[in-house]
Design brief:
Mean pLDDT: 92
EC number: 3.-.-.-
Shape: globular
CATH topology: TIM Barrel
Keywords: Hydrolase, Metal-binding, Signal
Number of domains: 1
Order of helices and strands: HEHEHHEHEEEHEEHEEEHEH
Helix content: 40-55%
Number of helices: 9
CATH class: Alpha Beta
Low-confidence stretches: 1-24
Protein name: Polysaccharide deacetylase family protein
Enzyme class: hydrolase
GO molecular function: hydrolase activity
């Protein structure tokens, strides 16, 4: 009998708590009555992004977020300057693209050999170089390889707090779901892969996000017709057409624009 009453009491408390949270966290109201937010993001400042990708985005009057490495920006500097003029957002993707040394190509810039001070200095230097090259200071960041640590073993530390200090947001990679705008940590936004996918694989994600009012951040690399780590232009055309159909209720905007909007909505109203 005692077990029965304990179960009833716990059930009542759970239901009551759920009700309190539901009242405390009403759904976020997206601009113009939109049902969800969508941000398109691309990493590394790869050549195909300004050779083919920005032209397609401009055709649809869509603005994306490009997380760049200064060295690769220099390879197509005038094209990247034009991307800025076109209204695309430029984010920081580090100076040297450090990842775990388990990738042989990253061994000389392995996160295991970094300290928090090393990382902070590198990100500040990357911001300065990007400003010198493109005239903008990045406000958003994407973690190279989606990895958020420095050091190894007992000395491992998260550099998420460094990102929260320097940027308005930090985006992960290969995440498994979208962002809840009222709960998400701006320094650890989920980033879902769109490389190698067709629109039929992306559409269900958007449909689900519309039901819950979430923010989908899609992440890609190359922008071309085929190849590894490539967001296919044919998929992107279908995605842009779908996202910009008013009937679908999608707010398509760069990461910085959406994160700024969310932060303003979270601020308590002045008395």
């Amino acid at each position: 009998m005692r077990l029965f009453f304990t179960f009833i009491t716990l059930s009542f408390l759970l239901l009551s708590t759920k009700g309190i949270h539901a009242q405390a966290l009403p759904p976020l109201a997206w601009p113009q009555g939109k049902r969800m937010a969508l941000s398109l993001t691309f990493d590394d400042a790869r050549m195909s992004q300004v050779e083919k990708g920005t032209a397609l985005l401009n055709e649809y009057k869509a603005k994306a977020t490009f997380y760049v490495v200064p060295a690769t920006v220099k390879q197509r500097l005038e094209s990247w300057k034009q991307a800025v003029v076109s209204g695309h957002e430029i984010g920081n993707h580090s100076l040297n693209h450090p990842c775990t040394g388990n990738f042989p190509w990253a061994r000389q810039k392995a996160l295991e050999d970094y300290t928090l001070d090393n990382m902070r200095n590198e990100l500040r230097e990357a911001n300065q170089q990007i400003k010198d090259l493109l005239g903008v200071t990045p406000q958003v960041f994407a973690y190279p390889c989606g990895q958020t640590f420095v050091g190894r073993g007992k000395d491992t530390k998260s550099y998420v707090p460094v990102i929260a200090e320097l940027f308005s947001s930090g985006r992960l990679w290969l995440s498994e779901g979208p962002n809840d705008p009222l709960f998400c940590d701006m320094a650890q936004l989920t980033g879902m892969e769109m490389d190698g996918k067709n629109f039929d694989q992306i559409k269900p994600l958007l449909e689900k996000a519309k039901e819950t009012g979430q923010w989908v951040v899609l992440a890609g690399h190359e922008m071309n017709d085929s190849g590894e780590q490539t967001t296919r232009l044919s998929m992107l055309k279908d995605l842009l057409a779908y996202a910009q159909d008013p009937a679908n209720g999608i707010w398509l905007a760069p990461v910085g624009t959406v994160s700024e909007y969310i932060q303003k909505q979270k601020k308590p109203a002045k008395p």
